[in-house]
Amino acid sequence: MSTVDHLARARTLLAQHPVVDGHNDLPWALRKQVRYDLARRDVGQDQTGHLHTDIPRLRAGGVGAQFWSVYVRTDLAGDEAVSATLEQIDCVDQLIARYPGDLAAALTADGMEKARAAGRIASLKGAEGGHSINNSLATLRALYALGVRYMTLTHNDNTAWADSATDAPGVGGLSPFGHEVVREMNRLGMLVDLSHVAATTMRDAVSTSTAPVIFSHSSARAVCDHPRNVPDDVLALLPSNGGVAMVTFVPKFILPAAVEWTAAADENLRVHGLHALDTSPEAMALHAAFEAAHPRPVATVVTVADHLDHMRAVAGIDHVGIGGDYDGTAFTPSGLDDVSGYPNLIAELLSRGWSEGDVAKLTWGNAVRVLRDAEAVGREERSRRGPSNATRESLDG
Amino acid sequence: MADLQDEADVATAGIGAPDRPTRKRGSQDEVVAPGDTLDPDVRARIHALLRAHPVADGYNTLAQVLVNTPWHDVELGESSLDTDIPRLRHGGVGAQFWSLMVAADCPDPVSATLERVDRLRTLVDACPEGLRLAQAVGDLADARNHGRIASLFGPVAAHALGDSLGTVRAYHALGVRAVALTATASWTRAGLTRFGQEVVRELNRLGMVIDLSGAAPETVRQTLGAAKAPLIFTRSAARALTDHPLNVTDEVVGGLPENGGVCLVSFSPAQVARAGRAASVQDVADHVEHLRGVLGPDHIGLSGGYGLTAGAPRTVGLEDASCYPVLLAELIGRGWDDTELAALTWGNFARVIRDVDFAARAAQPRRGPSTATIEDLDPA
């Protein structure tokens, strides 16, 4: 079958089984670019050149549900991180209010199904990093009440109670309070997201969690040895846990040659006094100059499909998903340049012999199942115990 | 997880001593509620009045107590607190603003405020027969008609807004309905800065009540000029009678009738005591009457300032949340008629909530959420 046929089949499939994407940083991009002035960056129109994400391209990409990240940088701490997270949440609420014909707030798996049935993109919120709750379970509950349905336990830096994949070992996984955070998330029905966390934290969280966990945007470490990816032994835990690992497209995590190139490019930003994650025009210009001098290794749909084949082999078809990290990364793979690219990935998988049923699980079924299962665990746990008032001081000493 | 708490700062009876019994009608060692000693005719009149026009109270700090000691049984009664549902019912309370205020020097005021919101949400969930969350004016009457105490969350302290309108909207989404423009933020310290004015506009747009108790005089004056909806003093008495920073001078509060707002008169002993003697219900009545003289009967209400642990200083006769009838009896003795009392307990408060709601509905089609930032409006 030709590539064109695979692409046509992919589009037909996505119409029935749209993509649930685990991670998109549009809110942060809107904060940086226009300070949440949504009128100045109308994502109802094509925003190519400014953003990876807008509604026309989400539609073209066959996206049916999006976890919008309410990420804030880890150099914000304490109240500043909490307040910035509340602003990010407010941004998602305003997006949903502004585009009611295209986006629909979803708080549950049923809400996702309902949005799909109404032809809307189900919009969920995910917090990225435990710094957003300022060591407070009450703040965690406030985020849940505001619609946040997963929390990544750390971002690139350790929290006081959980180790990050990209920081020096701290508490060696989860501290006692970290375990309590996981239990409280289980009780609420908030998904525990293990992207960004250290392998020790992954294992601790899987062992404590009574609900399925997710990796909202992580790929396979065996394919590309980067700490942001999931080791095989953890992928192998997913069948019994019931969770899902959502493959990410970030070239510097998935393509070995890009890992090295990125280290050099980050160093280039650093010598100019900029943060490695900066996506300001100034930083992008520096990146472009560096790229002109040092040709950038390019990831493609093939790279991503290689990761998915491996993740599927280790974790099983019921435990894979997609988390592109659009607008959270400076570069994207060829063919997956923006949120309109998902059909290219599906076509590649079809050409590798993935069945339509396999694809439906990857795009829609697994992610919806995981949220539904976490809700069921939450209902059951809430019938047995009330809100935890534990503090980090009381548990971690 | 009560056993994890080690900050039990409540005064309790000695170990082994029995807790004070809860009130049981007809039992031998019946504890007499303050209102029960009133003249039967007056008592009957007050009960009839409160059935239709229950007390809508402006300030109760129970949330703060529950942050430190979340295990209290508010539903069935707690002798170590001055507020629980039996006493609120005995006092004829039909609506309550539950304060979310945090200290001016609180290191993480946003998180600390979210803790209080969390305790209140848990409390309201745990007492479905006593409390009902109220977020709009319809909820007030609805709660009253269902025999529930309408629970309004707020006020939040000015310095707990994170200088961020997005954070204000998040509080609103969590059910918070009042913000205090206390002199604890850069934009309220001495009048309203440009960002402060934008906060007022956004609060009006959202339908959140603006509380001016504890605000600087210039901030009060400017807010009266800027606000498009009635304002509230959630806990102020008359400065003319008692010099206390939370009390209002006749001059500062003078613009309130034109604005349509209401001053809820505090019972707090420090705010009503005079000339070195212990504060009493008569002092509170004097403050109420003074402010009625200044503002008129349509712009005053009640603010018990309860939500404290048992050892806190008290106004004699108004020791806990069951005592409102004692004050009403005092006012009846001074010749108040039922119309005036009904405005004092419920009517004025409910009118302000309704007008704030109405102003928000009028504003929303014309104004979207504000994206202004303090950096843009108040450059250093």
Task: Describe the model.
The complex is a heterodimer of chains A (about 400) and B (about 375). Chain A is an alpha/beta fold. Chain A folds into two domains: about 20-255 and about 300-385, TIM Barrel (Alpha-Beta Barrel); about 265-295, no CATH class. Chain A has helices at about 5-15, 25-35, 55-60, 80-100, 110-115, 135-145, 175-190, 200-210, 230-235, 240, 250-255, 255-270, 280-295, 300-315, 340-350, 355-380, 390-395, and strands at about 20-25, 65-70, 105, 120-130, 150, 190-195, 215, 245, 320. In chain A, strands 1, 2, 3, 4, 5, 6, 7, 8 and 9 form a nine-stranded parallel β-sheet that branches. The longest helix of chain A is centred in the C-terminal third of the chain and has 27 residues, at about 355-380. The model of chain A has no long low-confidence stretch (mean pLDDT about 95). With about 375 residues, chain B is of the alpha/beta class. Chain B has a single domain, classed as Alpha-Beta Barrel (TIM Barrel), CATH 3.20.20. Chain B is built from 15 helices and ten strands. Chain B has helices at about 40-50, 60-70, 85-90, 110-125, 135-145, 165-175, 195-205, 215-225, 250-255, 255-260, 270, 280-295, 325-335, 340-365, 375, and strands at about 55-60, 95-100, 130-135, 150-155, 155, 180, 210, 230-235, 260-265, 300-305. The interface of A and B includes residues 87, 138, 139 and 141 of A.
